Amino acid sequence: MWSSFFTAINALFATPSPKYEAKYPINDLAVTPQMGWNNWNAFACSVNEHLLLSTAEKLAAVGLRDIGYQYIVLDDCWSLGRDEMGNLRYDPAKFPHGMKYVADQLHSMGFLFGMYSDAGSYTCARYAGSLGYEEQDAKTFASWDVDYLKYDNCFNEGLSGSPKITAERFRAMKHALKSTGRSILYAMCNWGEDYPWKWAHTIANSWRMSGDIYDSFDRPDPHCPCTGEEGYDCSYAGSHCSVMNILNKAAYVVHTSMPGAWNDLDMLEVGNGGMDYEEYKTHFSMWAALKSPLLMGNDVNTIDAKAISILSNPAVIAINQDPAGMPVNRMWRYYVNDTDVYGQGEIQMWSGALSGGDQVVILLNAGNSARMMNATLEEIFRHETGIAPEIKEDWDIYDLWANRMDEATAQTILDGTGVAPAGVYYNVTELSFKDGLAAGSPVLLGKLVGSVEAGGVIEREVPRHGVAMLRLRRSKTRLRAASAHQVPLGL
What positions does the domain Alpha galactosidase C-terminal occupy (predicted)? Predict the structure, then answer.
């Protein structure tokens, strides 16, 4: 039921009727998932004016701003409490020129400014929260020319435990932000508490659907008690959640995302050192395909060539920014015999519709060794009822990682001695992803690596903890008369 409902909603937003203008749930922001950088994962409370501005300069210099990472989001620990009038104060030792100055500097560089607060009496680091001060704090943020608010969930005075109670608490800030008259993206961070994917669409532009991410591919941790093994019904999502933990929980709720309102799987860990290259590629691929906001959480002033190669891949980002706004769905999941120190491995196949009739397919190998994986067109295009007509068509296959920037080129960009070739880089300030996709821009499609005939099978070797991420595009419009046949899955 939910799947059919949200498919219909997404179809409405993707193709508005000529008579009525499509309306997004709360505002006209985050029509595609927001992209940017947040300081918390790499710096926690070690924040100041210089960090934000130097990060922005680096993002611009290496091309990450122009490929879409536009928000610079300041997280916790910036405050010095409230003044005698109850207004929030920034710490002048950390921000000597003030928050309005930071916003002005970021805007002059082509970025947008993100701020942090909490829907509780205190923030998670025990600074002043906004509970009971929503209107006053929203006016303060607007006066600082803030463009984005990350709104956390600590010290909430027990105002949780049911969707109604939690929704009312977060809705207060929604109304406060709207009353300022300033356009401010609203990112709820309530860790999936009280099922925000069921009610947050009319409150926020995004909502955290799980506990805080940890820089690990699949390590279990007692701080993250829910696993998503038998559905996702968790009263405490916790923290130190691995990529696979979050992914396996997201599988049950991603269909509730829509343009303007997204499930947020938490910030990206790419470049922070806890995972290897293939694991970071998997992390980035899945966050992009599930239409999670893409907020980098690394130190970009020490970023390496491998991280740049991942974070700047236009063919993968184009999946995240696809105007249809349809997340992938997990079509199957199997356990495999090879295990690592953290237990039994698994393999999965995800598939989802893209604008223009394309399809994205992901073969994910969370096992402990490389393996051949395959998926039939019948599995890829499985519909709720009947046989999908796409099974009777031929498809070209594009590898979305095959044309990524090579590390040697990435290093020259980091060194300031080179620029990315046109064939591996995309500048969204020159042509939006929507227009680039409509025009069939080759850099957004990946590398053509083959085709699959009607009723056929796609097969790829997938590295340990890696993915094969593919875009399917119709190679022939003629429907075949032959019925699609089922090909057994080989593990």
Answer: 344-411
